[in-house]
Design goal:
The chain is an alpha/beta fold and 389 residues long. The chain contains 8 helices and 26 strands.
């Protein structure tokens, strides 16, 4: 389809070409083959799997090898208009118009699938501006170029992305140091015993841990970087990667008069406080929850598509375990809800570990499965309560 087809004000317009944006379009097309859809994106509009960014190094994949479909392929396949490399500067909700770098665009229903940015901590030192973050394909391409022919990478952050990158880099032959203020890896997801198991397996693969400390300064010393830690020790590395977490992109929503908290606040139908404007994915906050994972995005897209076509469908979230892509010790975790009362019990099994978070009366409220224990995923997920019923 022509990339600049004019459209009527009844079109569904989506801002963002990540998993959330494209999955909504796919779900709409399952229900309606002809509803006019336009997707606006700062990127070229290609489709790629973002979760692969933290696992593509060991398999020696270049950035463009992660693209599964180019923009024109997506436009043809989903019979939609794609405005690629296009910036949105504002939304007028009274006239239902979007201001873009390619002109004004009317909308009938607008979906914000804006994603999230990597949090950047303010770091001191002469090399503070040499810190990499990897949040999209272009970031990944820059990072790949930077580590080419180098040996040592330091990672700030021992969360999901930090651990996945650490495992991927050691498999790719790099020396890796991981720094985190928390006393353990995956502090928000795992109980201590499970975290120690993962740390042990990653240590055996070659990861060095610097926990319960943080970075004071990063300085350029000739060809390498000197990282000074708060505990007094120093690390030398060639490249420094920051992976301390994500913050939802809320600025556009805020400027439009949409309610925001941690994310863009939406109701169970994913609609904001402004009629006909919706949000989904890493930028959206549903009932106080921001869940930047694949399964919640798929679940939300399946509910949003019929809603956009006029059949209001409230979102429900079943229990949705998160897969941690660490080949050194494959891990699946479904953390208990915030404030859930109970305790963790950990049982080693042959070739792995099973951790259960149970209430006082023995109800399963969360789990962490490692190694061979990941085979229990299906059975245990059935026992868990829904996240949003």
């Amino acid at each position: 389809m022509d990339q600049t087809t004019p459209q009527s004000g009844s079109a569904i317009v989506i801002i963002g070409s990540g998993l959330a944006g494209y999955t909504v379009v796919r779900e709409i097309r399952k229900l309606d083959k002809v509803a006019p859809i336009t997707l606006i994106t700062r990127e070229p509009g290609y489709f790629y799997s973002k979760p692969m960014l933290s696992t593509a190094l060991a398999s020696k994949k270049e950035a463009m090898q992660l693209v599964s479909t180019a923009a024109d392929g997506m436009a043809t396949q989903l019979e939609m208009t794609i405005l690629g490399e296009c910036d949105v500067s504002g939304i007028d909700s009274n006239t239902q118009t979007i201001k873009t770098s390619k002109g004004d665009l009317p909308y009938g229903k607008l979906v914000m699938a804006l994603g999230a940015d990597q949090i950047r901590l303010p770091l001191q030192g002469s090399a503070a501006n040499e810190v990499f973050t990897v949040n999209d394909l272009e970031d990944y391409a820059r990072f790949r170029t930077a580590i080419e022919g180098k040996k040592k990478v330091a990672i700030l952050g021992a969360g999901l992305i930090g651990c996945e990158f650490a495992n991927d880099l050691v498999l790719g032959g790099y020396e890796v140091d991981v720094i985190d203020l928390a006393p353990q890896a995956l502090g928000r997801l795992l109980p201590e015993a499970a975290a120690l198991e993962l740390q042990g397996k990653l240590s055996a693969a070659g990861v060095r841990w610097h926990l319960a400390t943080t970075v004071n300064a990063i300085d350029r010393k000739g060809d390498s970087l000197q990282v000074s830690l708060e505990n007094g020790s120093t690390i030398n590395c060639d490249v420094f990667l920051s992976a301390v977490g994500l913050k939802p992109r809320i600025e556009l929503a805020k400027a439009t008069g949409i309610n925001v908290g941690t994310g863009i606040q939406v109701n169970r139908e994913l609609e904001t406080n402004i009629k006909n404007i919706f949000a989904i994915g890493d930028c959206a906050e549903v009932d106080g929850l921001v869940l930047p994972y694949v399964m919640p995005i798929m679940q939300a897209a399946r509910a949003l598509a019929p809603t956009l076509l006029g059949q209001a469908t409230p979102l429900t979230y079943p229990a949705m375990p998160v897969m941690v892509k660490t080949p050194a010790l494959p891990t699946i975790v479904s953390p208990p809800a915030k404030g859930a009362e109970g305790k963790w019990t950990t049982t080693p099994v042959e070739g792995g570990l099973e951790a259960r978070f149970e209430s006082a009366d023995g109800k399963l409220l969360g789990f962490a499965l490692m190694g061979a224990a990941t085979a229990q995923r299906g059975a245990l997920t059935k026992e868990l309560p829904a996240i949003l019923a």
